[in-house]
Amino acid sequence: MYKLIITYLFLVAPFLILAQEPTISVAPQQQVPDSILSEYYSLQDTSILDTAILESTGIDTMGMVKEEKPVIDAPIDYTAADSMIVSLDGQKVYLYNQAKVTYQNIELEAYYIELDLETKEIYAEGVLDSVGEMTQKPLFRQGSEEYESETMRYNFETEKAFITKVVSAQGEGFIHSDRTKKIGEEVFITKDAKYTTCDADHPHFYLHLTKAKVVSNQKIITGPAYMVLEDFPIYFPILPFGYFPNSPTYSSGILIPKYGEEQNRGFFLRDGGYYWAASEYFDLAVQGDIYSRGSWGTRIKTNYKKRYKFGGNFGFEYAKNKYGEQGLDNYSVGTQYKILWSHSQDSKANPNQTFSASVNISSSGYDKQNAYNMNDYLTTTKSSSISYARNFENTPFNLSMNLRHSQNTKDSTMSLSLPEMTFNMAKIYPFRKKNRSGSVKFYEKFGINYTANFKNSINAKESEILHSSFATDWKNGIRHNLPISFPSFSLFNHINFSPGISYNEKWYFKKFNYNYEEGGEYTGNPSSIPDNVRIDTITGLNRVYDYAYSLSASANIYGMYIPRNPNSKIKGIRHKMTPSVSFSYRPDFGKEHYGYWQEVQIDDEGNTRYFDTNLGGIYGGSPGMGESGAISFSVNNNLEMKKLDVRDSTKTDEEQQYKKVKIIDNLSISSSYDLIRDSLNLSPFNIRARTTVAGVSINMGTTLDPYMVDENYRKIHKYVWNERSGIKKLGRVTRANLSFGMNFNSKDKKKDNNNEGGNQEGAQGPPEETLPAIFDDYADFSIPWDFGFDYSLNYTGATSANPNGRVTQTLGLRGNISITDKWQMSAMTNFDIQEQEFALTSFRLNRDLHCWNMSFNFVPFGYRKSYSFTISASSSMLQDLKIQKQQSHYDNFNF
Fold first, then answer.
1. pTM, 2 dp
2. How far apart are CA 232 and CA 240, in angstroms?
3. At CA 688, angle to CA 685 and CA 690, rounded to 5?
4. Alpha-carbon separation of residue 425 from 135, 400, 451, 545 (angstroms)
5. What is the CA radius of gyration of the chain?
6. For the chain, what is the mean pLDDT?
7. Are 507 and 545 in contact (CB under 8 A)?
8. Sign of the C-alpha dihedral, residues 185, 191, 196, 201?
9. What is the rounded CA–CA span in Å between residue 633 and residue 639?
10. Where does the pLDDT of residue 303 fall: very low under 50, low under 70, confident under 90, or very high at 90 and above?
11. pLDDT for residue 725
12. Is residue 357 over pLDDT 90?
């Protein structure tokens, strides 16, 4: 028992006293000196009491002695794995092996810790193991800060520390210091330190800081500094001073420009500017380019986000490029722009309405002269959309509005739709009772829905858009669609019939009137209208409607083949055929009372032609002339087989699983026949097929025209199968295509490792044999790789412009290989087989240098012919620390 009491007195009691409430510096029973009291009372007669005198005496205004805030005002917890020794006076504690001390937000772990309560200091150090390596180094934590050192001495009263051999993480970088002094909670000063983004114990490169001040999570300020690469100092160039932002969140700062030279535009500084971290809701970056021969550019980009509401980004780019020498024939000046905007709404913000934007619009020459990304350079079509949609709750109605843009940068054509609106009513059943009982009656299946569209658009060259006339150049109109569905029914429980009526109405705000004028010549006429026909535009509301009746039928037919041999590994082959037939009738809308087609004289001989009064309408012109009663038919086929899965040889035939194998994914043929037309009643046959062979997906298609052509390649009413001798053909091939591709890759080593260790549940067969453990130290020479190709063949039939037809063939190749864990190589190319030439071809070689990265990009020929060689620091914090040699692809052009 006495041993337990002695242990309590020496180990526990001193720290229980420290953990109690603070005490005043003078005991309560101690008397205040008379000299102080007399001075205090003598001041009572003054009108203003000088509290500064009272504070200097150490008493408050009540005449009581002030309490002093203790240095250690919270419990100190400590533990150790081996032993804890307390000095006889209880002021020192010695902790050995896995020692740990905790005080407020401070934690210290080390092999040896010495705690001195009298001097308010704590000392910690590690220990050398049997091979001379330092283990259990002091690990200090305070708040979010954490660093490791060899020794440490810390004072609770001053909050200062002296640390040796410390490595501290500062954002993406690390500071290695032999001697560091901590002068504040998050402030350090150091001398002859190393700053690096390399996480190796011995960094491959660093900036040698002769002296530095570190404010954690804020900044690093240095005196003179120079680069050290693989322990080789590079004294020139030397940094006279340095400032490294070190914020865990994004912060404002200068964007360092890139430098280089181009043959056409000269020396340049590119991507320099300023980044403004405005708030948690948005930021702003302003960058610019400048070239020695007069070209320049600027870019503005901002990101914005409001949590649970919306988010997006917006960018504007403008460039002015000058090429050649002023006064010479090759001198040119061009201005280009680019606008990017992306906006999305959080789904929780409003379930009944949404707003989104995806804008990508630029002048035609922007990407050609300013893009450094290969994908941007190859892109010739762009599109944009700004959309708003709203669902009217508890109703069948919804509304959507869009602003659309599309352009072809190759020929500078642009199409704008400002705006497009769609009002839709979901299908309703007007004869269906809300509260009903029993089965649904026949008439209750009658349904109707409605769609209205409004569109205002223009299609013109970029240079013509701003000078266009809204009345004559823009196209606009409203389209109404009212499909009526009747109840479907089945015949013999296999054939499904679906009758229907469709009604469409278009509202245009102008129409055309045609007049023949002898000797007149109107050069602005469309190519389909003779020059001696004058076209007058009549404004006002113009209704254009049409309607049709239809009846369709479809069925599914199955065929099955089962082998008679009971030992056959094929369980069965199934053929599914889906034929469908439909009939539609449309009246002759070319009759005069409709007013859609106007008969006009076209020459002096009195010949006439019919012209569309709604030519070029945004939703199409007038309904076609002539009565139509067409029968459309199509047949879809699917062929698949169920066979034994023979991959697992350990199972008997009874235990084996069967798998489905698709022989033909789809084979379809479709056409139509017009019963009313007097000639050329049969439409071309469209044949499509898709299948998979040995993992290769193959797509095929062709269009066969059943009619012959004359010497001018105009169709005549003679069937091909009647005119051709020998093997009968269904028709002339007017279009055909074939495409397929395949990917190959090396064996996935990770999957193989997961299957080791015997037959596990779900494993596919027995594990592969593995090398004995004695070979574990040998190098693994496996080389991950992947390779793929795509082949495309297209044929266009003979025409008057091309009597022999046209064939195009392209072959695309791509591949990646990891020579080692550090070396990666990739390549891609496209080959035009008909032209016997390569299209865009590129090679890329990359080497991971741990904290550095080396890359070599090479385009050997073509418009993008160029190369670049770069060695740069991997960390984004030191992204401008690099060595680069390149030849720009812009030097290949003579603008």
1. 0.63
2. 19
3. 165
4. 75, 12, 6, 20
5. 42
6. 81
7. no
8. negative
9. 20
10. very high
11. 67
12. yes
Q: Are 870 and 855 in contact (CB under 8 A)?
A: yes
* Local confidence band at 703 (pLDDT 50, 70, 90 cut-offs): very high
- Name the helix (H) or strand (E) containing 812: strand 806-818
pLDDT in tens, 327-346: 777 788 889 999 999 999 99
Residue 109 is predicted with a pLDDT of: 93
Say which residue the tokens 């279009």 belong to.
Answer: 735
Confidence tier at 435 by pLDDT (50, 70, 90)? confident
Q: What is the DSSP letter of 293?
A: T
Contact call for residues 468 and 456 (beta carbons, < 8 A)? no
- Centroid of chain to Cα 272: 25
Average pLDDT score over residue span 363-380: 77
Q: What is the rounded CA–CA span in Å between residue 581 and residue 386?
A: 40
pLDDT band at residue 424 under the 50/70/90 scheme: very high
pLDDT at position 360 is 92
Q: How far is CA 164 from CA 138, 203, 223, in A?
A: 10, 18, 21
Of 389, 392, 397, 387, which Cα lies nearest the Cα of 419? 387
In 3D space, the residue among 173, 172, 178, 128 whose CA is nearest the CA of residue 149 turns out to be: 178
- Per residue, what are the HEC states of 227-249? EEECCEEEEEEEECCEEEECCCC
- At residue 315, the pLDDT reads 95
Instruction: Indicate the Cα dihedral angle 658, 660, 663, 665, nearest 10°.
Output: 180
Strand partners, 175: 168, 195
Q: Alpha-carbon distance 31 to 837, whole Å?
A: 107
Lowest mean pLDDT among 190-199, 514-523, 802-811: 514-523
Nearest to 419 by CA among 402, 399, 405: 402
CB contact at 8 A, 599 and 608: yes
DSSP label at residue 550? E
Cβ-proximal residues to 87 (8 Å cutoff; 6+ apart), any chain: 93
Q: How far is CA 444 from CA 394, 432, 447, 449, in A?
A: 21, 5, 8, 15
Write out the two tokens for 504.
């469409």
C-alpha torsion angle, residues 16, 17, 23, 27 (rounded to 10): 150
Residue 291 parent element (H or E): strand 284-291
How is residue 260 written in tokens? 């280089």
Going through 520-566 in order, the beta strands assigned E by DSSP cover 533-554, 557-561
Residue 549, pLDDT above cutoff 80: yes
